[in-house]
Amino acid sequence: MCKFNQNNDSRRIDPCIKGLIRYLNIQGIKTIASCCGHGKYPLTIVVRATDTGEGYEIVSGKYIVKRKKYFYKKDKKGCYYIPEISAQIE
Ligand SMILES: [Zn+2]
C-alpha cells in the first residue's frame, strides 16, 4: 500500500495498485472506483455488477449500493473507505 496523500485527486488510482487496475482494465473489467486502504482499510476495487448494475466490490464480494455521488466515504483524516466493508477508523 502507499501513503495516503491528502492532496491527491480522489479520482486518481493509488500508485501501488496501478498495475493491478491496468491489468483488470486490459482484461475487459472496467473498474469504477478503487482504493488501497492506505494501511487503515482493506483494499477495495469497485466494478459495475453485470447482474444488478449496482456497484460490486471484488475483493470482499459485496454489493455496494451507490450513494449520492460516490461509493466511498471520507473519514476524518480524508482517507476513503466503504462503510459496508469497513468501519470508520477514528
Ligand atoms: Zn496504496
Write a brief structural summary.
With 90 residues, the protein is an alpha+beta fold. The protein is built from 1 helix and 6 strands, in the order αββββββ. The strands form 2 sheets. Strands 1-2-3-4 form a 4-stranded antiparallel sheet, with helices on one face. A two-stranded antiparallel ribbon has the order 5-6.
Please tag this protein with its features.
single chain; 90 residues; alpha+beta; four-stranded antiparallel sheet; two-stranded antiparallel sheet; 1 helix; 6 strands; 10% helix; binds zinc ion
Outline the biggest β-sheet.
4 strands, antiparallel
Associated small molecules: zinc ion
Query: Structural class given helices, strands, pairing?
Result: alpha+beta
Name the strands of the widest sheet in spatial order: 1-2-3-4
The string of secondary-structure elements, in order, is: HEEEEEE
How many helical elements? 1
Unreliable parts: none
Rg, alpha carbons: 13 Å
Question: For the residues shown, what is the average pLDDT?
Answer: 85
Shape: globular
What's the number of extended β-strand segments? Answer: 6
Question: What fraction of the residues are assigned to beta strands by DSSP?
Answer: 15-25%
Percent of residues in helices: 10-25%
Oligomer: single chain
* Span between termini: 19 Å
